[in-house]
Amino acid sequence: MAARGARTGTLHHKEDTPAEPAGKRLRTVATGRQPLAAVSAAPPPLAEEPVVFTGRDDVETLLNEKMKGKNKMDYKGKSEQMMEYIKKLRACIKWLLEREDANLAQIGKLSADLEAAETQYSEKVTQLQNALQESKETDEELQKRYASLQEALKKVEAEKMDALRSLGDEKEAKLAVESSRNEILEDLTKAQLEEKRLNHQIETLQVTNKSLQDYNVDLQTYIRTLQTDAEKHADTISKLQTEKTIILERLGNVTVQAESLKVQLDLAKSLQIEAAKQKDDLLKEIDSHRSELQRVRGDRDNKSAQVDSLLNELRRYEEMTRKSVVELDNAMAKSTSLDETCSSQREMIKALEIKLAAATEKSKWSDLTTMEVMTKHEDQKKMLADLQSRLEEAEQKILDGETQRKKLHNTILELKGNIRVFCRVRPVLSNESGAVTFPKSGENIGRGIELIHNGQEYSFTFDKVFDHSASQEDVFIEISQLVQSALDGYKVCIFAYGQTGSGKTHTMMGNPEVEEQKGVIPRSLEHIFQAMQVLNSQGWKYKMQVSMLEIHNETIHDLLSTNRVATQDGGSSKYNIKHDANGNTHVSELTVVNVTSVGEVSSLLRRAAQSRSVGRTQMNEKSSRSHCVFTLRIFGVHSGMDQQVQGVLNLIDLAGSERLNKSGATGDRLKETQSINKSLSALNDVISAIATKEEHVPFRNSKLTYLLQPCLGGDSKTLMFVNLSPESSSTLESLCSLRFAARVNSCDIGRARRQIHA
């Protein structure tokens, strides 16, 4: 019956012979008589109708069903009703068992999916690391080849200069140009192969990216499934939070993968830039070769003109002399060599034009690849943003579930009627050695505390334990729902107990001027006024009244009184504590101030802090020497619903609980310490009497306990902070405080009652 769901169960029952004897045995035990069915004949069986359960309401209806008969002696009718009730109970149990089996099967399926997702994720991480390593190696090889190409280009330029200086070295220059051309062609071929390899790597990365997208979709489906289970099963929220942490780590890993893909995109961009540089270098080389070709053509034209002139001279002087035959042969040889040079230059131009076309095509392909990669990167960014938004939604759902869990936990504690106890340990100072530890595993995480005293370990468990790293905000979040109850018409009491220097005043008051150091009192006031503004829009109108007093040497002092001197001179006898029939506490002649904003209350708190009794002891330089009680009375009216609520918020900072020899007090401080110990001892007696359920509870033994009577023995929601000092020299005081807190936690003061009037 603890599980709630929207699914329904329909069970058809047949005649079950063992049900009748079971009903007889139950009736025999209940009445002490022989079963009536053994004497009278059994009625003929009736056609049974299927029993349908649609949820918790049907189960509660079945449990609340009462046996009815025509009269007290109608045992036969009651027996038949009992038989039918037993069959319905069996059907209900069978339905609940089926629901439990379905939940267990779903949990097993989720565990298997989680393991499969982890395996797939580890494989994808390995593949991405390998791809990244290969990309780095490819980058290094391209850089080396680029350097070699630059060196080859320098060689070509040097050989070109040598060819221009000397016409006789043209043949060697041609061979050098041909060799460099072959090297360039080989490098171009290698670059094309590398291009194909990079294309293959990009395709692999695309496949990996697609698989990552599928994994993210599966991950989001898994998160939604977890959220559905969190809404249906409140008792599994803690386990889902652990799984949420794992999912966040995985999402962080996916983010790292996205960053690695971004790095790969940057690498591809750098490769594109290098390809563009190579294209520019090739274009420059082609331009230089074109200019060289033009120069060679000019040389060829000049040589042709020289040949023509030589032929003319040859024709002119051929008949005159045969001595120029050798010169003619040389000229012909030169003409032949020039023709060969021109033909080789033509072939070189064609090769360079082919190379230029290939480089142009490569540049176009690089541009297209870059655009595709950038598009995919944008898609990846959009997908990552979508994942982030979904994660935020999942976190919000988990926060809502945690808030619901806290509300249910508060409800359970209210039904139990116990005083809630929170433990807070202040940080260890630089000159101190710690003696307090906290459980790091098991069910007592966040609720357990361990203290080592004289070599022996003592363990305690409370409703919540705050270690030294807990902030003021963390503490208030845990009690915010309790503070909210005051606006709903409940009496709420929160008090801090512990030795001097353990952080009671810091917890309750803190430093109201610094946002991070505000304590329970200023944060509670801010919370109440903010909630009040929301409720005002719903038709509620509120009136707030503040009072603040201290109990110093068993004497009440008004901390908000404008005539503080007269009060200290003997006017404190006029402050008498009275409890009315509704359990409300009033102190006669106490200053009560109407407030409408947080600023007004803050100024009152500053005035009260200046008036509170403090003194120097061995435990603290500025020790609180009195019990301080802050009271906020809330009166709410809703004219539309014709309702009135009256809530009270009591926030109490008790004086230090250390023993007399520990405080080292003398003179007036000795009297104060004795008075403090007497009132705290009376508080201990009251707690012990409540815990053992004694008939008489000694509330009147001190003014502190008499003032707290509605909080400890009435219908109030009460919470105690036990503050501890972690240093090893204070372990005895800490042990006494923890034992007292354990007794307080076991006290049953009854269920809180809302004060509402029509």
TrEMBL record:
A Pfam family reported for this protein in Swiss-Prot or TrEMBL: Kinesin
UniProt keyword annotation of Aminoacyl-tRNA synthetase present: no
Biological process annotations from GO: microtubule-based movement
A GO CC term attached to the entry: microtubule
Region feature (Disordered): 1-25
Alphabetical UniProt keywords: ATP-binding, Coiled coil, Microtubule, Motor protein, Nucleotide-binding
Domain named Kinesin motor: residues: 418-747
Molecular-function annotations in GO: ATP binding; microtubule binding; microtubule motor activity
Residue positions binding ATP: G498, Q499, T500, G501, S502, G503, K504, T505
Keyword Phosphoprotein assigned: no
Coiled-coil regions, chain positions: 114-243, 279-411
PANTHER family referenced in this protein's UniProt entry, alphabetically: KINESIN-LIKE PROTEIN KLP-3 (PTHR47972), PROTEIN CLARET SEGREGATIONAL (PTHR47972:SF45)
Family of the protein in this entry: Belongs to the TRAFAC class myosin-kinesin ATPase superfamily. Kinesin family. KIN-14 subfamily.
This protein's name: Kinesin-like protein
